[in-house]
Task: structure prediction
Amino acid sequence: MARPDELVFAPLGGVGEIGMNLSIYGLGNRHQRAWLAVDLGVSFGDEEHLPGIDLIMPDISFLEKERKNLMGLVLTHAHEDHFGAIIDLWPKLQCPIYATKFSAALFEAKCAAERGAPNIPVTVVPSGGRVDVGPFNVEFIPVAHSIPEAHALAIHTEAGTVLHTGDWKIDPTPTLGAPTDERRLRELGEQGVLALIGDSTNAVRDGRSPSEAEVARTIIDLVKAAKGRVAVTTFASNVARIKAVAEAAKAADREVVVVGRAMERVVQVARETGYLDGVQNFRSPEVYGHLPQDKVLALCTGSQGEPRAALARIANDDHPEITLNRGDSVIFSSRTIPGNEKAVGSIINNLVLQGVEIITDRDHLVHVSGHPRRDELRDLISWVKPQLLIPVHGEALHLHEHAKLARAAGVPRVLVCRNGDLVKLGPGDPGIVGEVPSGRLYKDGMILEDAKSRAVVERRRMAFSGCAFVAIAMTEQGELADDPEVDLVGIPDKNRAGEAFDDIVFDAVVSTIEGLPRPRRRDPDALAESVRRAVRAVINEHWGKKPPCLVHVLTV
Result:
């Protein structure tokens, strides 16, 4: 009797971290499997540790090798950490993509706005619909989240059904879109769910996430009470929040001015797909200065402190159309993503210095998370009754707490894995059965770099300790043809004794050359290495840091 095909799962991003989501499911045996990819997202660079890196993406080398067996890529929703890497990485895969209407439309708008983006076809699947992707039958189950048309995926196979939750919460009163489909999730639980691959973002938080309806009421109250101009910043993709801000502006007899390209793009797509039906038309930034102070509301990008976004420019008083003055208000209808605290804090401080009133979720309910807290996680487990639960979409603490909660809720098997682990889901006992290549790619300007890239490593070192450049002209006889040239970048002008670093390094270069035997002076590579070591050593002696040193030897 033939053995049944195994169903396996491997996260290539999004486990042990929040962001850069990519999960793959395989059906077959160890010699050949059909693969299904779920989401292909980014995380964002950290200037302190990764200077100059704009985006971080999952390493897809495994999928490139398995390209002929990759049946398709299915999107849970259109947040950047779930679909932001497609434009850069799809050309390496060229597989079919499946998404619902809003996600497909926002992706099309994103491609249109990006210069040189490839033509990437997307097959639109109705919300609640099903599609066959090779041997996988994928069902899109509506869930509440902070963007329209978020979906959990029920992945039906001969080996069993997996529920891949994507990002979700239970919100009985969403202001936009359908609530989480409890009825269908309960039906799945009755039919039998092999594994639940679940969002862990808020697994450390007790209770339940508040509803978007509560936030909408708070924003109405705040906008009505405001005396001067009002600016609101939120995640551009949060269409429900945009609608709530528009309704607050209407209740306070204010015009909405949209400021920032990302916000303009989402508003356009939301109107095209019907999510802003009945909402008043918004105005362009040029109108802002012509409206009375108590009749305008600016809806701005930049809630995460992005330096080129609208709010940062307003806070620095260098936006061409939008200004704020003493007595005006800014509502941060968002939470600060870990790592962005400094940038957001800088904007808030600049606004406070201008006399602007700041309102955040610390003092009013102006933001709620789109992810489930602990009681919601328990509800889902009770509905779905999975045989196995694997926590994903979270850092180590989130995964650990989700796993502990699942065990306490009676899930028969709970497994915590890492990016790159190959997990057998069934049939038979689940467990980690292998490893697939995983890692990170860096978007460096227009170039994709491996995480071990020399350029990235050297740039980090230069950011910490500057760089020394030395040019030496030597005769064929091994003598200095002229004085060496020394250029120090990012290195202090003087040491603690007040001596110029240029002079210290110059003397070290000359003395090193003069101290070398003549054959070594005539060998450009050997000479460059000796000078490089000497320069780093003398700078370290006087400063306590060893900068990179580049030595150019010219023979004349």
In short: Residues 524-543 form the longest helix (20 residues). The chain has a mean pLDDT of 94. The first strand starts at residue 6 and ends at 13. The radius of gyration is 28 Å.
